[in-house]
Here is the input.
Amino acid sequence: MAKPWVWLGILTATTLGAGASASANTFEIHCSELSARFRDAPANATLVVSGSCGPITLSDRTQPIRIIGSQSADPRSGPRVSIRGLQLLNSREVEWVGGHFEAPEGIQGTGPNGYGINIRRSQNVRLQRVHVSNAGRAIVINSSDNVSIHGSYIENVRSEGINFVDSDGLQLVGNTFRNFSPTPTRCTLPDGQVLFRVRRSLCEGLGGTWRDGSHPDVFQTWNAERRAVRNILVQANDIFLPFPGSAMGITTHGAVRVENMRVLDNKVFVDSAKAIFVHNCWGDCLVRGNTVGEASDQPPQTPGIHLGEFGEQRACGNTVLTRVRTGTEPCT
Here is the structure.
């Protein structure tokens, strides 16, 4: 399996096809036509999509295709398609450029109804300059291989930015993450008064009923024991999430085994302790060149870079800018 920073060029060349035939294979359509055109369009077709549509499912395609939802260089501006829930299933060689995505049931949606983009059992998928907002989870990638997300903007998310689950090959490069809105813990006292963001022990000590809130991560990968998650590159992303909209940053929480993960040159400013957390990683597992710091003046936790006890992960050349510690780790 080639590492993801190698296969990206292959995906782009395959998807775009020959330049001489590009105009003949370009079709302007409304998003209501997209599912049928995705299934029937010829190899190396380009679909230029406009309009606003509810949930769309694209499935069972193996021939290369390119879908353009916006021509703008800025993911958040210019004319663009708007889709409330995109699902990509059992497909390969798909490139999507631009467009706005929300979850079908918005930021409070649960399960797939809370996903902006849901990719399952697919291979060689590239998302470029997409804007995902108003979702419980922005982008969920499950049981898929060779997925890349470049130059995109993720905001107004309740729980998770990017989930990479039971999959092999990810590039997450040059994306921006802003304005998370996690659900806080909730304590209802016997007199009906409601307290937020209190510990369970304190709530129950007051005779209250405690309800857990969201546990958001900007990026989280995990897997079942039967398959390692592999070949992950998280590079040059811009994360700024001040309290109370903070989240953990780049993490492998819940991963039984990770193989080959590089976390390079990211800016991670959050008010949670684990700005970067890598554990259970074997092979080429490197955290280098990242800048980590607090996102507000009074963060409830001090962010840092943490490596788990088990695995071969290593960190060097990172800069930490907090009230507790300022410095750069040397690389030897």
